Amino acid sequence: MPRSTRSPRVWFVTGAGRGLGRAFVRAALDAGDRVVAVSRTADSLADLAADPRVLTLVVDVTDRAAVFAAVERALERFGRLDVVVNNAGNLSMGFVEEYTEEQARAQMETNFFGALWVVQAVAPVLRGQGTGHLVQISSIGGVVTGPTAGLYSASKYALEGMSEALAAELAPFGVAVTIVEPGGYWTGLYAAMGTTEPLADYAQIREDLAAQAGGGSVDSDPALAAAAVLTLVDSEDPPLRLILGDVVLDAAIEAAHRRIATWTAWAEVSRAAEHAIAAPAGRPAPAEA
């Protein structure tokens, strides 16, 4: 249906204060929709507060009770939710061995648990409506990983695994779930990036990685990602996954080919490792995975 003739949708966007989140808010408003803009800080939402089409909410998504309260406020204001964009996230970099417990847990708290709390808060709403689209913002780090990205990728891999199961769970209720995997965008994510305390043993690998990076990456305008997401939520048959950017797309295709090649090369060993037998005496048969 053309955007000009449909009823305005209601978006719920986390991490709306900057970067991709702010671009999603702008795209939704430009399309004639209404937005619940969620951020951890009030200052980042100040310019939106006077817009009657926007409800601004200061929420830390790692606070489950606060997330549920935010969804209730959104429903009080707009009566429904149509597009939920789980965008809030943070980035820390370092070798896996270097992470403190606090740093490791902090990486998972926002990127995985924060997204989970939003899912749990909005799922009953979307199910009850029998319609809606949940957009889970992952990353290239949820597709492939490498040195210094281990914990960030762990948080995104966890998000993707949860989201894939969620898509199958909500589909019977008419609710779509899409995992969006963006490449590089100028979002301010790197400026707020956390880092580990370097171990001397990894110094040479760090130098090699810095040399490979050269002059650094050239990232894109977040508005391009927002335009892609608008196309996504306008689709009558949205995909489970959507990659944003040709660099990410090429990397994902290459990674898939490598995995298939490895599985094929080791197929004989893999197949020999399974041969069904009856359950041992006194043990119930295992449930299907």
Key traits:
Rossmann fold; two-stranded parallel sheet; 7-stranded parallel sheet; alpha/beta; 289 residues; 44% helix
Uncertain spans:
none
* CATH class descriptor: Alpha Beta
Gyration radius (Cα, Å) is 21 Å
Q: Kindly identify the CATH topology.
A: Rossmann fold
Q: Which second-level CATH architecture applies?
A: 3-Layer(aba) Sandwich
Query: What's the total count of β strands?
Result: 9
CATH level-4 homologous superfamily: NAD(P)-binding Rossmann-like Domain
Order of helices and strands: EHEEHEEHEHEEHHEHH
Biggest sheet, strands in spatial order? Answer: 3-2-1-4-6-7-9
Describe the structure in your own words.
The protein is α/β, with parallel strands linked by helices and 289 residues long. It has a single domain (10-252), classed as NAD(P)-binding Rossmann-like Domain (Rossmann fold, 3-Layer(aba) Sandwich), CATH 3.40.50. The chain is 44% helix and 14% strand. It is built from eight helices and nine strands. The chain has helices spanning 19-30, 64-78, 101-129, 150-170, 203-213, 222-234, 246-265, 267-272; strands spanning 10-13, 34-39, 54-58, 83-86, 92-93, 132-137, 175-182, 194-195, 241-244. The strands form two sheets. A seven-stranded parallel sheet has the order 3-2-1-4-6-7-9, sandwiched between helices. Strand 6 (132-137), helix 4 (150-170) and strand 7 form a beta-alpha-beta unit. The longest helix is centred in the middle third of the chain and has 29 residues, at 101-129. It is globular, with a radius of gyration of 21 Å.
